[in-house]
Amino acid sequence: MKKLGFILLSSALLLSACAVRFEQSSTTSDSSQVTKLSEDNQKLLDKATSDYKVFVEEQIDKLLTDTEGFVQLLKDGKLEEAKKAYPLIRMSYERSEPIAESFGESDVKIDFRLADYLDENKTEEGWSGFHRIERILWEENTTKGTEVFGDQLVNEIKELKAKIATVDVDYKIMLTGAVDLLNEVATSKITGEEEIYSHTDLYDFRANIQGAEKIFQLFKPLLAKSDAALVKELEEDFKSVNSLLDKHMTDKEHYKLYTDLTKEDTKELSEAVTKLGEPLSQMGKFLGGE
């Protein structure tokens, strides 16, 4: 998780840090430019937003169930099993960040990195969540001391689930969220800053891409009516990024440590994300009507 909120970032490839940032199309943030949609298109838009809320709720349900199992591993002292489960569990949260991160207080308690927490609080006191547990598992190589943070984490996810149930999802959250997920990749996954102890950043990378691709797939029926070429470009660019990530898988579920990637590997991933970011920021075109 990066402390970016909904900052609009200019498109750039910073090879020195292997980071990229994207600027959202004006149609994603200026509702005054939106043309009234036809009845059929409005139905497609309503279905996309409704289906997206279902998707996010399913992801948070999975997050809760998986985290409860993870915490039991911690309490049972099963260090290696807990380490193996940790990055897989987090993927549900990473996919649903456009909604999950909007609840700032919950996000701090679930997904704040130490660096971000220190920026705001100047002390580690009160720091909790996944990354607090991550540090103990990898830095201290033990499950001892994680139990209390595990119980807190389960409670926070339960609260987040209840909050998400009350959310009214609109297209602007989705359009902005898709680009924000790419920004997450650019600012904390490609740089290796997110999973600084476990180096499991590629799992988060994949989940952010999956979250953005889900939003694209939900808008695809509407977008295809106004810009079939853009749909094709996005399909190809998502395929390219996913193919690169596939190269770094060690089995059907797991990925290499981020520290095992070469500079050429990270440059290749960075350039693919840059290429995806430009057309992704144009998805709001369908709001221009027919």
Characterize the structure shown:
This protein has helices at 39-75, 79-95, 97-100, 104-111, 114-121, 130-140, 147-164, 171-189, 201-226, 228-247, 263-280, and strands spanning 12-14, 19-21. With 290 residues, the protein is an all-alpha fold. The protein folds into two domains: 48-168, A middle domain of Talin 1; 170-290, M75 peptidase, HXXE motif (A middle domain of Talin 1). A two-stranded antiparallel sheet has the order 1-2. Strand 1 and strand 2 (19-21) form a beta hairpin. Helix 1 (39-75) packs antiparallel against helix 7 (147-164), helix 8 runs antiparallel to helix 9 and helix 8 (171-189) packs antiparallel against helix 11. It is globular. The two termini are 37 Å apart.
Largest sheet: 2 strands, antiparallel
Work out the strand percent: under 5%
In CATH, the architecture of the largest domain is Up-down Bundle
Q: Rounded to an integer, what's the Rg over CA atoms?
A: 19 Å
CATH topology of the largest domain: A middle domain of Talin 1
Strand order of the largest sheet: 1-2
User: Total helix count?
Assistant: 11
| Rough outline | globular
